[in-house]
User: Fold this.
Amino acid sequence: MRKKIKILLVGLALVGSSLAITGCSTKQRVPALPADSSTAGSQGQHQVISKLYAHLEEWHGVPHRDGGMGKQGIDCSGFTALTLRRLFDVRLPRTTSQQANSGTTISRLQLRPGDLVFFKIRMGVRHVGIYVEEQKFMHASKSRGVMLSRLDNPYWLEHYWQARRVAALSIP
Assistant:
């Protein structure tokens, strides 16, 4: 009996240490695109999602820099403007406040890949990202750079402000 308990404790220690090691990674892996295109909706939406994930993988981890527009550093509105222009030839204004007045206001229930999601962080501070799918959006975070986050995360839920559709996206 003692031998079984000892083996069990050693096994639990090994599992715990492996979890601790993998949990310490600072760079998150960008999730792979789902293989089943039915989860992405129509074929056009699947192509939009695929392009967004590919772009995210290319830019993932690029640090935040106010006013930045390149791989040395980029801010949230610069990232949304650059992404939609490069991928879909959609021209957006440069600032978050200008982008927040672009296109058409939509509800969270109407979100489609490529829509903009906006947040009020604190008085006078706004943030913007691009909706990808299934409650996920890509953005340039001040603390972690370009990354993927979830709208249903308590932080983003608390600060959610609005969503806007700036174009019916298609692959050029």
